[in-house]
Amino acid sequence: MKLETPRDIIDALKNSKSSKEKSEIVQQVSKEFISSDIRNGNSDINFNETTQDVKIIQILLLGLGYLSPSQMSGQLDQTTMHAIKKFASKSNISVDVNKPITKEVINLFTTYQSSELELSTNIKKDSYTDPKYKGDKYNWPPKPTDIHSLNLVEKENLFGKIVWVKASGDYITVQNNFVKENIITIDLPQLSKIQNPPKLTKIRCHRLAAKPILALWQEWENLGLLSKIENWAGCFVPRVIRGTQSTLSPHAFGIAFDINTRSNGLGKMPPAIDEKGSVRELVPAALKLGFFWGGHFNRRKDGMHFELSRVDSQNMIA
Fold first, then answer.
1. Helix (H, G, I), strand (E, B) or coil at 286
2. Contact at 8 Å (CB) between 55 and 71?
3. 290 has a pLDDT exceeding 70
4. Distance from C-alpha of 307 to C-alpha of 243, rounded to nearest angstrom
5. pTM greater than 0.70 (yes/no)
């Protein structure tokens, strides 16, 4: 079986029709993609490490139903450790969540044997396992403390100053060279794979937002989350924030985009994960890559809205 991408692995595991087939997939992936140093016991994976080996383990755990898409952090965190512990318990193996991942734990994947009982009872998990989640599905994921929606001065310092005058409605006319110097056109191929794809996959955005946007949408595809996206509603739009007269929208800078607009009305509580049009499972990856979510706005919620609030080596890798 040809398994080259995270999507291939996840789909193969979820669509496997027998315990033998599922066992073969897990063994194949762990042997091919987990580094030989880890498999042979020459090195361990320590807590909080972010490595390709961790990502492969998380992909397997997702495909087997021990993690949800929003928990795919790429980091050996507590959520992943507890998922590994539960996975190991099926083989009557005890895993200490406070100790590194060793060869013995990896062997559980390379020698994995699924059972018909596990195959039939493996249920899809929700994502409300964050320690900050307290039973309120409308407070998940929790608002981040390390990223925020940038104010005008912060946006200008990072992305450039816009000189403008009001046009009709919420729209503005840019009078300086901001657009010429900063707004570019890129191809976002994942748009062709959403529920209601636009006719074109070309979008206009700020030159500094291009790589972060590409990285985020690639991550969403890797996590199998593109099916959660109903529609695309644009990125660069020279306008003020709706309902204001003089506050520039992040869209005017080309650093924000909107999705799932039909289900995430401006000023309304964004749908929970189990509700139509929810984007909540998309949010953790967005936060990790420097995008602030409009569902975390203090006053007027804007669940359709994702805006770039950080540019660094973590999101400039596309």
1. helix
2. no
3. yes
4. 18
5. no
pLDDT value at 148 more than 90? yes
Closest C-alpha to 183, from 156, 165, 210, 158: 210
Is residue 116 very low, low, confident or very high in pLDDT (cuts 50, 70, 90)?
very low
Candidates 268, 270, 284; CA nearest to 230 is 270
Strands 305-308 and 291-293, by their bridges, are antiparallel
Question: Can you list the pairs that 154-160 forms with residues at least 24 positions away whose Cβ atoms lie under 8 Å?
Answer: 155/248, 155/250, 155/253, 155/255, 158/208, 158/311, 159/206, 159/208, 159/253, 159/254, 159/255, 160/253
The Cα 132–Cα 141 span in angstroms is 8
- Cα 161 to Cα 165, 253, 255, 313: the distances in Å are 13, 9, 13, 23
Report the topology of domain 152-308: Muramoyl-pentapeptide Carboxypeptidase; domain 2 (3.30.1380)
Question: DSSP state, 103?
Answer: H
Residue spans in the chain of domains classed CATH 3.30.1380? 152-308
Distance separating alpha carbons of residues 52 and 56, to the nearest angstrom: 6
